[in-house]
Amino acid sequence: MKRNIKIATAVTAGALAIGGVLAVGPVIADPGGGGPVAAQTTSQGMLMDAQHQTRHHGGPTDGIRQHDGTCDGAALAEQGTLTAAQKATLAGMAEEEKLAHDLYTAFADRYDVRVFERIAAAETQHLTAVRTLLDRYDVTDPTAGNPAGEFTDPAVQATYDRLLKQGEDSLSGALKAGRTVETDDIAALNKALSGLTAPDTRQVYTNLLAASERHLTAFEHWIADE
Q1: What is the pLDDT of residue 53?
Q2: In this structure, is the dihedral angle defined by the CA atoms of residues 160, 166, 168 and 174, taken in order, positive or negative?
């Protein structure tokens, strides 16, 4: 089927914030001949080639290539100071990233399209990044110990349940649910960045924002092709 071999442009750009604590390197030539890609060094010592586009069965695809690399030792910016409200927001970010991951994973199991699987993998890394900040600032992780589809915040739980039901009705509904998640995340991140001075938290939020914008573009692309 056509939808089984196409990948929306920028689906895997969640790798832009892999671990959420990366340092963006120079543009280098793609060894696979697919054109230039951005080399990015994460604190885990992995180089990620984000936004790599190749051709497969006549359609565009996005891929992530991982290579062993060395950590530059300064991937995550220095720690700053968070207010009580900003710490609460950080905890909420963990719930939001888990919501996205769990929702997309459920849709990936239901529908034979790659967009959900790819973005769900990125959301796993985003949650890891947020958890790194929770640990740095000694903020309780509200997602700790919660299985898939279960959340500490009743409002987040209600949102997840509503979007899951929407996506269970049809692929179109699932794609639109994904669009809603990314749109809400973009709004939340923009709000969280306002007045935020902690360098490490600004860095992670900025990377998450860029990833959500690309994920939104991917869902819009799939919706348009439905």
Answers
A1: 30
A2: negative
CA–CA distances in Å: residue 202 to residues 107, 114, 143, 171, 174: 31, 30, 21, 35, 30
**Adjacent-strand bridge partners of 18:** none
**Would you state the structure tokens that stand for residue 148, as one six-digit string?**
């898939």
Whether 27 and 52 have beta carbons less than 8 Å apart is answered as: no
DSSP 78: P
Cα separation, 225 vs 216, in Å, equals 14
User: What is the C-alpha to C-alpha distance for residues 3 and 225, in angstroms, rounded to an integer?
Assistant: 9
Residue 190: CA count within 13 A, CB half-sphere? 8
* Tokens coding 55: 């051709």
Residue found by looking up tokens 């969280």 in the block: 192
Residue 41 near residue 67, CB atoms below 8 Å = no
Whole-number Å distance between alpha carbons of 65 and 47: 8
For residues 151-162, one letter each, b for 16 or more C-beta atoms within 10 angstroms of the residue's C-beta and e for the rest, the string is bbbeebbebbee
pLDDT tens-digit profile of 94-136?
999 999 999 999 999 999 999 999 999 999 999 999 999 999 9
The 3-state DSSP class for residue 60 equals: strand
Whether the CB-CB separation of 224 and 175 falls below 8 Å is answered with no
CA triple 60-63-66, angle to 5 deg = 160
Which residue(s) pair with 27 in the sheet?
38
